[in-house]
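STRUCTURE REQUEST FORM
Protein name: Peptide/nickel transport system permease protein
Source organism: Kribbella solani
Requested output: structure tokens
Priority: standard
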Amino acid sequence: MTTSSTSEPSAGKSSIGEASAAPSAAADGVRDTARDAEVVAVAPAPRASRLTWRRFRREPLGIAALAVLILLVLVAAAAPLLARYPSGYGEAVLSPPSGAHWFGTDSLGLDVFAEVVWGARQSLLVAASASLIAIVLGTLLAVLGAYFRTLDTVISVIVDLTLSLPVLPLMILVAALAGPSTLTIILVIAAFSWPEVTRVVRSQALAIVRLPYVDAARLMTSSPFWIIRRHVIPAVVPLILVSVVLTSSRAVLSAAGLAFLGLGDPNTWSWGRILYEAQQAGAMSTAWWLPLFPSLAIFLLVLASTLLSTAYNDARNPRRNG
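Status: completed
Returned output:
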């Protein structure tokens, strides 16, 4: 009797221990599962920029366009190493392309290849400077208008009014009044380029400021400029990149057009000035190589910029192509 009574409590304790061990094991399993889920949850996902670059590398036209733009930039940077600065007069006047002069010579006997190479430096300088000013001003007004709705009405009216004006005649008028110089060309082009940037960036910024995480940021801080810098501007960076490429190509076209009309810097070679000098010499039709090579350089830059922006948009938004 004593033995059985002793064994019964021990059996009871054993069953209680097993019962208490079961929930403990289950809890450990739950904790392990939660820990695994947490590890999976915090595992870093591929960054959007890396995914965009992977998709972009599968765009052959985009890669070719990027290579062309890089080549033009390298040519502009290495201009002193590629050709001497064209100045003075030469002996071979209006000579067609040959081994001595790859792109021929102009009415002054100057090497057209050297003019195109040094013209790339000036044209890209004007394009980059005007595009930078337009991008900074346009983006700033776009995000401020999107966040502060009281400013949005005023900015929208200014943008719509500027876009409705005839841009080229106004550029010609302002450049003629200010006088031909590189700084004048840069400021004139930038002054008429920022409204397009503002319109494009503003449409995206308006959608960003309505998102829940921006509303949560408003509760965390009272500084609207911190929210704009931390949340709004990073969200519109892809559009800014596209705007940089397109604005630069348009700036090259505008600068070439103004220089062709005689409103460019007369002391610096540019692609537009080559065309202007050929027209002034009356050699546009007789010396075919004079308009061909600078026009080809402008065409390649504009085409490469357009293809690059298209390929980047497709890589950033793959669902657009289905």
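Reviewer notes: The radius of gyration is 32 Å. Residues 1-45 have pLDDT under 50 and may be disordered.
Form closed.
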